[in-house]
């Protein structure tokens, strides 16, 4: 396994936002009953949703399960605005594996009502993430195998070569609309195989040959009354 870079990991502490790309794998779009997009589907997640490796994912009080989605995370290394696609990779500071935890019931209700997805994607602990690997350890980010297991059973396994929109295009496209700052993260989409995980289960995920992460799933504790 590769050794994460401590200096790179500090980038996550500097970031201001997480820009997530929805339906960037055609097979995942189809399993969700959604059209394959002709341009990136973007949404934001707060950095307060980060959870370090080994932490506990919290299922909100009103829910019984969440859906984990394994993704390649691209960590921006310097300020990027209106970046040409041809030089976009110069703005990458590192890579990580992340989970986009999704409260599917909340998301479905929001979609049906034409409302934003924020509550289904942005709650505390909803972005578990690994340490950051330097770019030198990831020479071909378009050919990485991502995987996710629940209680040892494989749920997801896919390759970044199957993404619809590649990293240089995503950086160029996003930076044409909003400035990407040092430490910001782009979640590049999830392969097919998503499904529920319940309280008491354990999630492991990773990038084959590079790193892996593990998380417990528990019910969020109710705040003690005064």
How is this structure best described in words?
- With 226 residues, the protein is of the alpha+beta class.
- Helix content is 17%, strand content 31%.
- The chain is built from 5 helices and 14 strands.
- The chain has helices at residues 6-14, 26-31, 104-113, 118-121, 167-175, and strands at 18-22, 41-45, 50-52, 56-59, 65-66, 70-76, 92-99, 127-129, 145-150, 153-159, 185-187, 197-198, 202-207, 211-219.
- The strands form 4 sheets. A 5-stranded mixed β-sheet has the order 2-1-11-6-7, sandwiched between helices. A 5-stranded mixed β-sheet has the order 4-14-13-9-10, with no helix packed on it.
- Strand 9 and strand 10 (153-159) form a beta hairpin.
- The longest helix is centred in the middle third of the chain and has 10 residues, at 104-113.
- The N and C termini lie far apart (47 Å).
- The model has no long low-confidence stretch (mean pLDDT 95).
Q: What would you call the shape?
A: globular
Q: Give me the count of strands.
A: 14
State the end-to-end CA separation: 47 Å
Radius of gyration: 17 Å
- Order the strands across the largest sheet as they lie in space: 2-1-11-6-7
Mean pLDDT: 95
Enumerate how many helices there are, as a single number.
5
Features:
226 residues; globular; alpha+beta; 5 helices
SSE blueprint:
Blueprint: H1 6-14, E1 18-22, H2 26-31, E2 41-45, E3 50-52, E4 56-59, E5 65-66, E6 70-76, E7 92-99, H3 104-113, H4 118-121, E8 127-129, E9 145-150, E10 153-159, H5 167-175, E11 185-187, E12 197-198, E13 202-207, E14 211-219
Parallel strand pairs: 1-11, 3-8, 4-14
Antiparallel strand pairs: 1-2, 5-12, 6-7, 6-11, 9-10, 9-13, 13-14
């Amino acid at each position: 396994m590769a050794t994460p870079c401590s200096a790179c990991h500090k980038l996550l502490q500097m970031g201001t936002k997480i820009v997530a790309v929805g339906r960037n794998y055609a097979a995942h779009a189809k399993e969700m009953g959604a059209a394959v997009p002709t341009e990136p589907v973007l949404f934001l997640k707060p950095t307060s949703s980060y959870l370090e490796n080994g932490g506990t994912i919290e299922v909100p009080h009103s829910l019984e399960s969440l859906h984990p989605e394994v993704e390649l995370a691209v960590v921006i290394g310097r300020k990027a605005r209106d970046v040409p696609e041809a030089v976009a990779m110069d703005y990458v500071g590192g890579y990580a594996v992340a989970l986009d935890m999704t409260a599917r019931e909340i998301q479905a209700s929001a979609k049906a009502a034409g409302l934003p997805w924020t509550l289904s994607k942005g709650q505390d602990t909803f972005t578990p993430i690994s340490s950051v690997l330097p770019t030198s350890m990831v020479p071909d980010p378009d050919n990485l195998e991502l995987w996710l297991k629940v209680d040892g059973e494989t749920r997801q396994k896919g390759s970044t070569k199957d993404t619809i929109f590649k990293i240089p295009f995503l950086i160029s496209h996003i930076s044409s609309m909003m400035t990407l700052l040092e430490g910001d993260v782009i979640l590049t989409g999830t392969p097919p195989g998503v499904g529920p995980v319940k309280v008491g289960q354990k999630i492991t995920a990773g990038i084959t040959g590079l790193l892996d992460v593990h998380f417990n799933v528990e019910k969020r504790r109710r705040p003690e009354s005064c």
